[in-house]
Write a structure and sequence with these properties.
heterodimer; A: mainly alpha; two-stranded antiparallel sheet; 3 helices; 2 strands; flat; B: alpha/beta; Amidase signature (AS) enzymes; two-stranded antiparallel ribbon; 14 helices; globular
Chain lengths: 93, 397
């Protein structure tokens, strides 16, 4: 982990770290380096990947129109709304 | 000492929920400034089941940010120390006698660690037997709704209420399969101790293991120490999978539709960045950045894909062990208490201390903590593990 890679990862994750946090993240990566070494010591060339430990099904509902929540309810936790719309900064000049 | 994030007066029997479980009438924060004051539009499925069975919700217990830490130390409301040792809010509330049980989301083993150190009993059921509908997602492929109580009998009673198929959860197993996990079964006749987990534990943890092993032997079981070095790799694989999944799951928090929004920003990008940077804590930021790096083009096959394959190695190894043994006896922690000094010296201690909890997290196998130690069994064996826990639950107090 170097500063340039960290800067790229901050940008990708929409985070801006303080200097103290950067040191903390770099330390975290250094300690996780051992994790990669442990894994590389295990032979898996003939092993299938396991994404889910048990079968997973797609949840479907009846194909009918419904409105479980009103617009007001959905916007109750919004940081800022205006006449039923979520407010964000202008994106088109 | 702030144990509750929200509390109401209610008649017994009552339960406390950790703050990863959505409640319609009480705020749910996931221990994060990002969700400070957040009110869900619906209750989690486990709450509906508890209400139908006559249980009331006493309140919401403080939890570490998105449940990835050691035992709540990364909570926005601050770590809770008692007599110099870190404690879990939900477990302290159970110990106070105010509730019959705590319902907690076990993401990275914090629930089991706190149970071992507090002398309480907890059960992390087989993945898919308790609905996760209405829990805040962090590491979805391994996290489970768990029960904490003063005794194995109370754990069994509450687990039987929340266990069962739920159409709303895509990982929920059939009703018949779920209910089969509750069968009490007989006391164990063959118990394995994982020798690879004994090197780094303190003398008092070793004493708890010896006491549990002696209890099983007195009840007629054969206790043997076996070697299973593959299980030590569960920690490395789980750290990678958990971080990648958590990174994806918290990407939804951007300060637009709900949650925290920074007070000052210039443009949309800065709104996202400042909101997330101001709201998330240091440990979660490390997890997000590490998780995204494991999913990068350069690392996907080498790191993330490798961890998925190692998950299968772990599952196959455990399945093999359970062909010969009824259960595995392991530590849940390396120490019987975590001091403030130790946590400050290593803020991501959860990612090393999960050596013991990661095998059950990554495999979906059930685990029960009692008497200060952990019991693991094959899929759908939690009922039998609770029967075994009755033999040792007094040992940890």
């Amino acid at each position: 982990m170097d500063r340039e890679l960290l800067r790229r990862l901050e940008m990708l994750n929409q985070l801006s770290l303080t200097e103290e946090e950067k040191v903390s993240v770099i330390g975290f990566f250094e300690r996780r380096g051992a994790d990669s070494e442990v894994l590389s010591g295990i032979e898996t060339s003939e092993v299938e990947r396991m994404v889910h430990v048990l079968p997973v099904m797609t949840v479907v509902r009846e194909d009918v129109v419904s409105h479980p929540f009103s617009r007001d309810e959905l916007q109750r936790g919004a940081p800022e709304t205006d006449e039923g719309y979520w407010c964000v900064p202008r994106v088109i000049e | 000492m702030k144990l509750y994030n929200a509390k109401v007066e209610c008649a017994a029997p009552a339960v406390v929920l950790d703050d990863m479980i959505l409640t319609k009438d009480l705020p749910t924060t996931a221990g994060s400034r990002m969700l400070s004051g957040y009110m869900s539009l619906f209750d989690a499925e486990v709450i509906s089941r508890l209400a139908k069975a006559g249980y009331a919700v006493r309140g919401k217990a403080a939890v570490g940010e998105f449940g990835v830490d050691l035992m709540g130390e990364s909570s926005v409301s601050g770590a809770i120390y008692k007599d110099g040792a870190l404690v879990s809010a939900a477990h302290e509330i159970v110990l106070s006698g105010e509730v019959k049980a705590a319902i907690c989301l076990d993401v990275n083993g914090s629930v089991r660690r706190a149970s071992a150190q507090s002398g309480l009993v907890s059960v992390k059921p087989t993945y898919g037997t308790v609905s996760r509908f209405g829990t805040i997602p962090a590491a979805c492929s391994g996290e489970c709704v768990s029960v904490v109580a003063a005794s194995a009998a109370e754990c069994r009673e509450v687990l039987s209420v929340i266990n069962g198929h739920d159409d709303k959860d895509g990982t929920s197993l059939s009703e018949q399969t779920c209910r089969s996990a509750l069968e009490a079964g007989k006391a164990p006749t063959r118990v394995a101790i994982i020798g690879d987990f004994l090197d780094g534990i303190s003398a008092d943890v070793k004493e708890k293991l010896d006491l549990a092993a002696a209890s099983f032997e007195r009840s007629g079981a054969v206790v043997e120490t076996i070697s299973a070095p593959e299980l030590s790799a569960a920690r490395a694989a789980w750290n990678i999978l958990m971080s990648a999944e958590t990174c994806n799951n918290v990407s939804r928090y951007d300060g637009v539709k709900f949650g925290y929004r920074s007070e000052s920003f210039m443009g949309l990008d800065e709104l996202y960045t400042k909101s997330r940077s101001e709201a998330f804590g240091a440990l979660l930021k490390s997890v997000i950045i590490y998780g995204s790096e494991t999913l990068s083009t350069e690392n996907y096959m080498k790191v993330y894909d490798k961890a998925l394959r190692v998950r299968r190695v772990i599952v196959e190894k455990l399945s093999k062990i359970f062909e010969s043994y009824d259960l595995v006896l392991t530590p849940a922690t390396s120490e019987m208490k975590y001091t403030k000094e130790a946590i400050e010296a290593c803020p991501d201690m959860a990612f090393t201390e999960n050596l013991y909890t990661a095998p059950a997290s990554i495999s979906g196998f059930p685990a029960v903590v009692a008497g200060g130690v952990m019991l693991m069994g094959g899929t759908f064996s939690e009922g039998k593990l609770l029967t075994a826990a009755e033999l040792i639950e007094g040992e940890g107090r």
